Amino acid sequence: QVQLVESGGGLVQAGGSLRLSCAASGRTISSYAMGWFRQAPGKERDFVSVITTGGSTYYADSVKGRFTISRDNAKNTVYLQMNSLKPEDTAVYYCAAGPVLKVIGDYNNYQMYDYWGQGTQVTVSS
After folding, report:
1. pLDDT tens per residue, range 13-62
2. Which of 2, 33, 86, 90 is most buried, by the most CB atoms less than 10 A from its CB?
3. CA–CA distance, 83 with 86 (Å, rounded to integer)
């Protein structure tokens, strides 16, 4: 079992930045692909980004060039640096972990991930 706890969310003005953290416990994340998803009120859970065990990264088109995912296996933590935030980035952000061979074939599908955090709210004001 992997327990995931997100932190770093908050209220920020458009154009600002936030860094989300996802701290894992129970197992090392080094053998998992780690992803970020987000869900706005009344909408489905959308893929944001994923980082593989080898460090390859993938992003949703809507965040490409603004968000950066990274991982620190020694700290068992994954990060999402979010810059140039827009009001449409407002959502609850979730961290997820999944077996890399399962995730890599369909990484933007939330069903490929086995473990989820409780989410952290990000609100971007205009």
Report:
1. 999 999 999 999 999 999 999 999 999 999 999 999 999 999 999 999 99
2. 33
3. 9
Q: What is the sign, positive or negative, of the torsion defined by CA atoms of 85, 87, 92, 97?
A: negative
68-117 confidence digits (pLDDT tens)? 999 999 999 999 999 999 999 999 999 999 998 888 889 999 999 999 99
Beta carbons of 10 and 18 less than 8 angstroms apart: yes
Which residue has tokens 């197992």? 27
Is residue 26 within 8 A of residue 15, CB to CB? The reply is: no
